[in-house]
Amino acid sequence: PVAIEASKLLIALLFREGGNLTVQQTIYNHLASSWSDLFFRFLHESIKATHKWHTKVGLITLRANQPVISPEELSIIRLIQLMSEGHFNPNQDLMRHQPGNIISYNLLSALVDLLGFLSTIPCRTSTTTSIAVASAILEFIQGPCEGNQNFLALETDLSETLNRQLRHQPNTTDEMSGSRELKVISIEIIQGLLEGLDDHSNVYLKIVSVVHFDILEMLGVRGTDLNDVDDRAATMQTSVLSKFDQAREKEPMAAIGEELSDSDNSNNGGDEAEGQDSDSDSDSDDDSEEMGME
């Protein structure tokens, strides 16, 4: 289609490490100064078409050397990512709403829905699209972009989807391809959602209540599959865990405790009880033991 080919030309114009500010600003000026409903409808329909394509083909098993076939609309996701490359805030906000248009299309919501669905059909084909979608979402929040942070964390299931992706263990060689990269991006998105926020913000508390600490602690530590990706994994993990540790000291973490395994709950409860014991009464060892059992 002509629209897809035109988008590829725009991708070529936008392509530059750190973002092509001149082209980005030109695009924003045009979209913000005139009715751009049709353009954003095209972007929204392209994301929906990608979702529909994966729904139709489902889980695909490929041979080792067999190339991945992706829907042609996948290039549109790359286009909107490049429009915000380098934390170009004006275009980041346009991904969520277009205040000058009669009809506003929320591209973030459509992307999160797509990413959530892809996480239910893990294979090399779906992972390729997941990486493209996750990379775009990451670009829309970095800077940070507070409006997108709030929307994605508080009004979508993004945190739950990221948690599911981080917990997933590939069962086949085909499934393993790209899985590491997707997990690294997932950790980067978590950090991006927390960027610039204090530990009392609603976004901070939402993520702390959803993401499993046991998974973040294991990634890149116990011989898991992020060890040999690159240094970004360790850097992101350290940064995110540092933020989470601060929150754990101030919050009861009840929501996380309910979702962790029984053994983890028991150990965590015992540790907390012993910590309270040392500050209060030296004769309450039995009480702390009972609290640990609970």
Could you explain how this protein is built, in words?
With 294 residues, the protein is mainly alpha-helical. The chain contains 17 helices and no strands. The protein starts with a helix and ends with a helix.
Task: Summarize the model shown.
The chain has 17 helices and no strands. The protein has 294 residues and is mainly α.
Give short descriptive properties of this protein.
mainly alpha; 294 residues; disordered C terminus; 0% strand
| Integer-rounded radius of gyration | 22 Å
Low-confidence stretches: 219-230, 250-285, 287-294
The main β sheet shows up as: none
Strand content: under 5%
How many E strands? 0
Mean pLDDT: 78
Q: Give the helix tally.
A: 17
- Element order: H for helix, E for strand: HHHHHHHHHHHHHHHHH
Question: Could you estimate the helical fraction of the residues in percent?
Answer: 55-70%
**Alpha-beta content class:** mainly alpha
Terminal residue distance: 62 Å
Q: What's the overall geometry?
A: globular
Draw up the topology in text.
Elements: H1 2-14, H2 21-33, H3 37-57, H4 74-84, H5 89-94, H6 107-118, H7 124-141, H8 146-154, H9 158-167, H10 173-176, H11 179-194, H12 202-210, H13 213-218, H14 231-248, H15 254-259, H16 262-279, H17 285-293
Helix pairs in contact: 1-4, 3-4, 3-6, 4-7, 6-7, 7-11, 8-12, 9-11, 11-14, 16-17
